[in-house]
């Protein structure tokens, strides 16, 4: 029963990370006098001056300039604060990259490409270990606080999967069965997204659509349960300050109109273009890092990028604040009490102050200033994210992508709003926007833009719409979101089919057989299997005629994972498959413990020992390690079927026979190379580590 | 492009069905004078007297007694209306059952068990035909209007799948590829649930969890798209009268409290018990119908059940109204303007009339009357639904199950509310229910009860919670719903693992291999394959030594679907598999068109004709029909793997070999029998039609 408490781990970790990030992000600006471990908000919350307007300026919270030189205004105070901001950012980033380098090299990146690969059947030892869990959690806090353009969502999925791996190591039922372990990991991935966004259903669908390779139905309920437990653990820790479950809670008061679909689709096009641009540039930069001397200085790279980010980000209020705060502000509808610069509209003095449903108003000076700052922030985010994602630190992509989309969307939204306000009589506005009505919600545009950009980068579809739907909690906006998501996917797919995760899988050369690719070519297993015509014959074992020395030589000369066992070299009739690892172990054990086993001993895989001439050495029985049911196809099997079998059964290799005679072998790598060849790609571009 | 308009079909049909049902249900009570095709609501909507209170009593709407004998009150008028109600119900039911019997016998039942079986790879010819589509749509309207205790949700899934089948018949890409056709059907099933409830995400998850057998990821997006298109087509037809998407739109004003989890879990237990009771009794009754003379009088059975239903239902207002109206009323929170009997609370005269957030009040006379009527309605619904589901008419189970749960839930809710009102000082209430506060929402209890009962019958989990979540549109109530759904599933599973659909699949003997059952026994393929020890050897063909006559005899004497082809009877080395159907066709064609083919002709499956003695008849080449890549496993393969392969690859049979020598065959039916045997069931209880 106690073991089940591990289920609470992802939610708790996410809560702790949120609290720590809040505190450390604010530490870059100042410190709380009453208790240094309070964030700005907590510090002022406990202060006595709780009038709504002054809450931001409570005396207990001191900026660094106030604390150090007792100045709160003026150029020197500004410069001091600026410097402190940069220093803290550099310190956090340096700590993070050092920790990752020294203790857990697998803690870097978002982890989603690797988890996809692991769930498809590949093993990366230590990738989901406890050490990775610990270091990734700590460094995630550091890098997010350092103000780099990255998010915590992808790494949270990795952290949750580490928890899941830890969980399955506690139960022998899961740790001994690779398939069951993968089911637990799928559920953990759902829990990760669930805590990242507070979207349990979206988390399950994300795990289903994006991460998991094979998703058995019984996993569905488990994933949902894990996602809910995680979401509610997080909620009871309550890092978002409101008792809501979700990260960005928004409530809009007006419906959308058919004519608005046009800007929404434009935002979709923007999202698709951004996705393409980002993937191309990021992959090119990462390839350069892999292949040139740049890759040898990861610490320096992180320091330089952090310094540039901090220097450029500080002067602009929209880049200085944390990215999730920025998104939250951009999503928000302007209420009557809103004091944000973005809500600096000119109010009609004749109007009584309503609570909801404020009609469209002309923009004030603040809004125009905000537009300029947002435009600069947009360019900055686009450029810096390309260089940030892929550095040797934990880095997620959801939040920066959403920020780019939200900025673009809010700008478009304000534009449409002002156009509609000043040109009520235009034919496109006349039908739905009377003077004095609240027709356009710029926050909705920000949300649609965020969905479009996230979709362009990750190519998520259903889970994306559902996550956004859970954020707003209204079915009303599902059509705008879908329109943007579909457009974005179409536009991005037109330039290249791969999402960022698949692109990174390719870049790293993981053997990943994508379930989404369709294979429709008419090739046969015989075209793909090895040995090809002219190649030396397959390395096989015979069932009762090879000596221990023969086998040891074979093992030494080849690096195959295993060897088919046939009746004899002449008949080539397949009887089973022996793993390299088990062969080595069995021979080693036999040589040490079994008497009479020498290099000349005959090894046999049959039930009965073969008839040997007198005074030949004692034979070695190895039937125990023989897999008597290796997976076979005939040479006439269409490759379409073979690919299907590899995918659905998660095979690593498959033997090819004709009427029981062994002809060759097809490995997963052969299948991948063949698929690349058929898609007119260079098969050698698929590297394997 | 025009073909894609088929996508609009499910939504449109659902809209038409809704409108027709509204009209015909009201026709049992009276008729609209201005236009006879108006339902009660439409009739009064267009009338001039549109004050809110009198809208139900507009002069244009005439009850049958008013129209026929010009009396609206009194015993004779009541009896006349009663009789008309019964007559119309009998007429509708008779028409429905006759149409089904004469034109489309497959149109009966809910159709979900059959669709599950079809998606698992079994073929029922005509089950998804256009004729079934038409008749099922028409008769669905008739039976729902007749007032029988059944719903339209299951049949709508069948109707949507017929549309999907029609759609795939338009594109050769889908009609020629069985796998792609199944993907379209999965998407159609999602669209069906989507229109039934207005829950697009729930529809997709229902299709995933309950209906589909193998759900490839690319189907996900298609299903979601189909579900959305269907939902919005339905919305633009707008049958529910409000511009909401969902069937039962509710908005609650108060949160739930931890202490309320106890009654929610009690409702879960009730749901589980109801599920068990219903499945047991319904299956027993259906078995009796199948095996006794009862099954020979389907029309009479429907007439009798309809008559009994109408006679008992009319006097009770909660059973007289349509079941979906009843559920809607039970789900609703009592607002200030509510005139329903269920909302007859005693108002505090000192209180101003608020719009929302009405505090708990003592129950009035109306509420107590309603409680009695609801109790009677509960018993009636429980009994009559058992006899209704499975008759030879279209019948869904969602709505009656939800009604049972909603009635029970509302009663529990009112009980808790009154307890809390009168006993504020009890320790369990003291923490969360101060006097004058709105603590208990009886409508929420109805919703939780409905979820629990639906879960007990169908054993849905995630999709159930999501459908309910989409109905309320708030994440707040996800925990009560989950608690009830999980409890209900646990309780019901304790009495028997099968949901109602699986039970009906078993009853009808469809070869369905459930993906949810785990197979963990240590048997091997050799234990399951046929021929068993002592049985005659397998019927095989040899590659070049059998005559046409030999094969014709073999075909005549056996009824196997196909025959393995081996090199010779001595070596028994497998070279392929020949389908019975194609063999018959090939021989027939050859005898008619090819010269020199006589009964003595040798049939050969090799590339080259065998060497024959001179003046032997012309041989017949059949390599073309030989499947050169039959699926094989070795005799040592664990049955766990075999079951997995059958499931994931949707096989119908699999050959068993050892080193290429054919040993036997395993069919899907063998696998099913073996699984039943291992689960200590009588394997003969699995009948196959």
TrEMBL record, chains A, B:
Q: How does it sit in the membrane?
A: Multi-pass membrane protein
Question: Pfam families in the record, alphabetically?
Answer: CBS, Voltage_CLC
Annotated ranges, domain CBS: 529-595, 626-684
Q: Where in the cell is it found?
A: Endosome membrane; Membrane
CDD domains (alphabetical): CBS_pair_voltage-gated_CLC_euk_bac, ClC_3_like
Which InterPro entries does the record cross-reference, listed alphabetically? CBS_dom (IPR000644), CBS_dom_sf (IPR046342), Cl-channel_core (IPR014743), Cl_channel-4 (IPR002246), ClC (IPR001807)
Q: GO CC: one term?
A: Golgi apparatus
Q: Which family does it belong to?
A: Belongs to the chloride channel (TC 2.A.49) family.
* The protein's name: Chloride channel protein
Recite the lineage of the species. Eukaryota, Metazoa, Chordata, Craniata, Vertebrata
């Amino acid at each position: 029963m106690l073991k089940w408490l591990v289920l609470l781990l992802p939610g708790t970790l996410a809560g702790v990370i949120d609290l720590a990030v809040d505190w450390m992000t604010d530490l870059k600006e100042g410190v709380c006098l009453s208790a240094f471990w309070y964030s700005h908000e907590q510090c002022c919350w406990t202060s006595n001056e709780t009038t709504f307007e002054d809450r931001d300026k409570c005396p207990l919270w001191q900026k660094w300039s106030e604390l150090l030189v007792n100045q709160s205004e003026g150029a020197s105070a500004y410069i001091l604060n600026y410097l402190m901001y940069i220093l803290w950012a550099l310190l956090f980033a340096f700590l993070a990259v050092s920790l990752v380098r020294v203790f857990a090299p697998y803690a870097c990146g978002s982890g989603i490409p690797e988890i996809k690969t692991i769930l498809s059947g590949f093993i990366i030892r230590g990738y989901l270990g406890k050490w990775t869990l610990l270091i990734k959690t700590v460094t995630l806090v550091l890098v997010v606080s350092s103000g780099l353009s990255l998010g915590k969502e992808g790494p949270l999925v990795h952290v949750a999967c580490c928890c899941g791996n830890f969980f399955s190591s506690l139960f022998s039922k899961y740790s001994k069965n690779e398939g069951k372990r993968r089911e637990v990991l799928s559920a953990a991935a759902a829990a990760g997204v669930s805590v990242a966004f507070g979207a349990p259903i979206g988390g399950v669908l994300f795990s289903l659509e994006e991460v998991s390779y094979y998703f058995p139905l019984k996993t569905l309920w488990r994933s949902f349960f894990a996602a809910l437990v995680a979401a509610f653990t997080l909620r009871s820790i309550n890092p978002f300050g409101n008792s809501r479950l979700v990260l960005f809670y928004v409530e809009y008061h007006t419906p959308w109109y058919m004519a608005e679909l046009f800007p929404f689709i434009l935002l979709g096009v923007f999202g698709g273009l951004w996705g393409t641009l980002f993937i191309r540039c990021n992959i090119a930069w990462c390839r350069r890092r892999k292949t040139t001397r740049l890759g040898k200085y990861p610490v320096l790279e992180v320091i330089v990028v952090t310094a540039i980010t901090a220097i450029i980000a500080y002067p602009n209020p929209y880049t200085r604040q944390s990215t999730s705060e920025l998104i939250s502000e951009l999503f928000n509808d302007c209420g009557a009490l809103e004091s944000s610069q973005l809500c600096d509209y000119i109010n009609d003095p004749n109007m009584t102050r309503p609570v909801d449903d404020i009609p469209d108003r002309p923009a004030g000076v603040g809004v125009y200033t905000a537009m300029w700052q947002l435009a600069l922030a947009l360019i900055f985010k686009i450029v810096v994210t390309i260089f940030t994602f892929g550095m040797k630190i934990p880095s997620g992509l959801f939040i920066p992508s959403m920020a780019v989309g939200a900025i673009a969307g809010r700008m478009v939204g304000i534009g449409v709003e002002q156009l509609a306000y000043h040109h009520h009589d235009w034919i496109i506005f006349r039908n739905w926007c009377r003077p004095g009505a609240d027709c356009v919600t710029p926050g909705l545009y920000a949300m649609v833009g965020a969905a479009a950009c996230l979709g362009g980068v990750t190519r998520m579809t259903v889970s994306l719409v559902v996550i956004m739907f859970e954020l707003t909690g209204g079915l009303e906006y599902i059509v705008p979101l879908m329109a943007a998501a579909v457009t974005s996917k179409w536009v991005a797919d037109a330039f290249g089919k791969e999402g960022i995760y698949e692109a990174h899988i390719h870049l790293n050369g993981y053997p990943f057989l994508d379930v989404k690719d369709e294979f429709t070519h008419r090739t046969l297993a015989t075209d793909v299997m090895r040995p090809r015509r002219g190649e030396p014959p397959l390395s096989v074992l015979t069932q009762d005629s090879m000596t221990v020395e023969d086998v040891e030589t074979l093992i030494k000369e080849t690096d195959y994972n295993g060897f088919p066992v046939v009746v004899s070299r002449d008949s080539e009739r397949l009887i089973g498959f022996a793993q390299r690892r088990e062969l080595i172990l069995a021979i080693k054990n036999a040589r040490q413990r079994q008497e009479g086993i020498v290099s000349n001993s005959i090894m046999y895989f049959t039930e009965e020992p073969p008839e040997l001439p007198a005074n030949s050495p004692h034979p070695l029985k190895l039937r125990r390690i023989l897999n008597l049911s290796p997976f076979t196809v005939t040479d006439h099997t269409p490759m379409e079927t073979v690919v299907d079998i590899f995918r659905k059964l998660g095979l690593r290799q498959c033997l090819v026979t004709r009427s029981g005679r062994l002809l060759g072998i097809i490995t997963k790598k052969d299948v991948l190379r063949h698929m690349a060849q058929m898609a007119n790609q260079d098969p050698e571009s698929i590297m394997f580590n």
